[in-house]
TrEMBL record, chains A, B:
Superkingdom of the organism of origin: Bacteria
Species per Swiss-Prot/TrEMBL record: Pseudaminobacter soli
A GO term, aspect molecular function: NADH dehydrogenase (quinone) (non-electrogenic) activity
Enzyme nomenclature, EC number: 1.6.5.9
Keyword Thylakoid: no
TM region positions: 374-391
InterPro entries in alphabetical order: FAD/NAD-bd_sf, FAD/NAD-binding_dom, NDH-2, NDH2-like_C
The FAD/NAD(P)-binding domain, residue ranges: 9-326
Protein known as: NADH:ubiquinone reductase (non-electrogenic)
Reaction(s) the record says it catalyses: a quinone + NADH + H(+) = a quinol + NAD(+)
Length: 435, 435
């Protein structure tokens, strides 16, 4: 970390949607840019559930960060983990003790799933935020069918064929619908002793309806559509316990081997790094111009920030919002470099909410109009292919979806990673037999 | 494992090229077939090095076994690990203590890399036999560049940019050529502090020439072609030590952070399971009809078996040989089911040897003619796409290759799995600093 040429130095922590957009918009600004991420790839999170459900391959929704900026000599990429910030000395601290100094700092470090004080649930009910999460979930879902095929005890077999998704937001709805499609369509002829069509997919939501960010009639439509796909939708039921045997909700025990957590997120610890005020989810409460109170040279954007839309409502934690914030930060930095230092308030423009339900069904709320069903699904699919990076990945994802929707076959039904399948089984069996 | 309908029961252990071919050829034979594999996928091993070098995605060269036989009600697939065989009781023992009885048993369990009594080298110099191996190697290769970008000590930076491949057979030649292409072409513009074109790729072979199964002039051509790609080829140099700091060969120490083992394989423990005679590499010395001496109901095929070609030379450990053996076993079982129990000696037909060297270069030895260079590469590519399973994967691999060869861009440059990048770095740094 020694060579530091002249020029204003912008350090961007996190290469999600917000961070990438800021880098793009700073092209030609004259600033030197360093982007730091603890992973080597940008992840297209809206399609992550398709990796978890064996639809897409990991390389179709992830891009090496430094490769995206190979033709930008002003951008330096560092694979590293930020562990702190010293705002007085203007340095970012990395995990190996080294420091990187900045003139302007942009924190875009995103969020992780939160377990509301029950961190021990993470091991049994993993969430879905990274490629590793997705591959782990894919592995657990596919292994559950494998173990069921070998299981002779009917009760245990039934537990292995029960999949519980906790949380009825977009991720929960997408996971439930796609697991149902996987079990009831893709895998239906693959087993000899079990019938995957009899697998139970249970979606549990503590609130009174699915997709709370959508209008009520779209929530009702989503619940009806999921039920027609064979998903059991439980509303107004809070989960009080998760373990290797299943879940307890509303006093009832449901035996299930596979749990998926889609119930809540918490921001990264950026607020602690800079000593900024934060809300209960850990998000930095930023000024109107997205800076940290008292630190006009530190911006916080994306899921790490709590900012307000013009109507006073919080800006939602979705990709378009993070991108708009990245654009705003870049524009502010460009203006400052030209000597214009007047505060520039961020104005969020909400384009709409989209969620897919299952094969060829989706809901869209544009505000001025609402869509549901097959047309919404086509718009959803085209929009997502458009926002993927690069011609190659667009081709590859389009080919994959075309294939799945015409043949019903999935190409990524692979169990990889971690301990061997059989040693996991042994471990789980022991756990199942424990008192 | 309770339901056992009537009919001759063939148990096949291992779903590699030999096992799959036997299952295919037994279609309509009237036999019930159970295939047991400890992984859920068949792997197209000849292209595994392309996953390790970020060219192909894992799902492009692997297929779920049970999905391949979804339309074969006579085939039951078990994800499980065989730990023993009782030939007297005609049962196969699984890792969880359960047993599966057979009328005919086919052992096709393949081989793993062997370290000639130095198993401790496996951790620092991984081999390439499974998808996990390939993803681990990809991770190490890409991380070495990342760490080099952050390293300030010139000697350590040089070690991080030195890649040593041990073993000059087809896998070693393919890995060396492709890592050279990755460093010198794909990654050349991605870094700011290091120049990937200066990375050293060193191929060390203990014997006097590369590709010992090929004619000498093709070996010489391969060495020349690799050197033109920037690979340092060391012949007649045996490696005497591997550790986190690098390798020692012929008394010389070479500092290198990334080692790849391509120097030797050993058969699976099938010989011990059945108490059969084995050669030094652990291969079962089978009868002319591929059965185990004294056990006419147990066949051993593929890399697990040592059988002889008509000219007395050992049948090579390549995919076409395993497939021919699978066909022979299936034909023998079909004949026996019709009452024809006379011994049927296996006659191996050698079609040729192929190896790629790097971008658009390959060598082929058909016996009756030899090819080298670009034409050989085209034949190699077309043959491999032809032997992939399914239209979708053929399209996908062809698209990927086309993309790489026209744009130079690779799509699978992902660092995933295992410990986080940064914790690995910390661990390795500590190891590097150890006395």
């Amino acid at each position: 970390m020694s060579e530091t040429p002249q020029g204003h130095h912008v350090v961007i922590v996190g290469a999600g949607f917000g961070g990438l957009e800021a880098i793009r918009r700073l092209k030609g600004s004259g600033a030197r840019i360093t982007v730091i991420d603890r992973r080597n790839h940008h992840l297209f999170q809206p399609l992550l559930y398709q990796v978890a459900t064996a639809t897409l391959a990991t390389s179709e929704i992830a891009w090496p960060i430094r490769h995206l900026f190979a033709n930008r000599p002003d951008v330096t990429t560092i694979l590293g983990e930020v562990v702190g910030v010293d705002p007085d000395r203007h340095v970012v601290k990395l995990e190996d003790g080294s420091e990187i100094s900045y003139d302007t700092l942009v924190l875009a470090t995103g969020a992780r799933h939160a377990y509301f004080g029950h961190d021990e649930w993470e091991e049994v009910a993993p969430g879905l935020k990274s490629l590793e999460d997705a591959v782990k979930l894919r592995r657990r879902i596919l292994l559950a069918f494998e173990w069921a095929e070998r299981e002779t005890d009917p009760a245990r077999r039934e537990a292995l064929l029960t999949f519980v998704i906790i949380g009825g937001g977009p991720t929960g709805v997408e996971m439930a619908g796609t697991i149902a499609e996987l079990a009831h369509v893709t895998l239906k002829d693959d087993y000899r002793r079990i019938d995957p069509r009899k697998a139970r997919i249970v979606l549990i939501e503590a609130g009174p309806r699915l997709l709370p960010a959508f209008p009520e009639d779209l929530s009702d439509y989503a619940a009806k559509a999921l039920r027609s796909l064979g998903v059991e939708v439980m509303l107004g039921e809070a989960v009080s316990s998760c373990d290797l045997k299943g879940v307890v909700y509303d006093g009832k025990h449901l035996a299930a081997a596979t749990l998926v957590w889609a119930a809540g997120v918490a921001a990264s610890p950026a607020a602690q790094w800079v000593g900024a005020p934060a809300d209960r989810a850990g998000r930095v409460i930023v000024e109107q111009d997205l800076t940290v109170p008292g630190h006009p040279d530190i911006f916080v954007i994306g899921d790490t920030a709590l900012s307000k839309a013009p109507d006073g409502s919080p800006v939602p934690g979705i990709a378009p919002a993070a991108k708009q914030q990245g654009t705003h930060v870049a524009d502010t930095i460009r203006a400052r470099l030209k000597g214009d230092t007047k505060p520039r308030p961020f104005r969020y423009k909400h384009a709409g909410n989209l969620a897919t339900i299952g094969k060829r069904l989706a809901v869209i709320d544009f505000g001025w109009t609402k869509l549901r069903g097959a047309l919404a699904w086509w718009i959803w699919g085209i929009a997502h292919i458009f926002f993927l990076i690069g011609v190659r990945n667009r081709l590859s994802v389009a080919l994959n979806w075309l294939w799945i929707h015409t043949t019903g076959q999935r190409s990524a039904l692979l169990i990889t990673q971690g301990r061997s399948a059989t040693s996991s089984k042994a471990k789980r069996s022991r756990a199942d037999n424990a008192p």
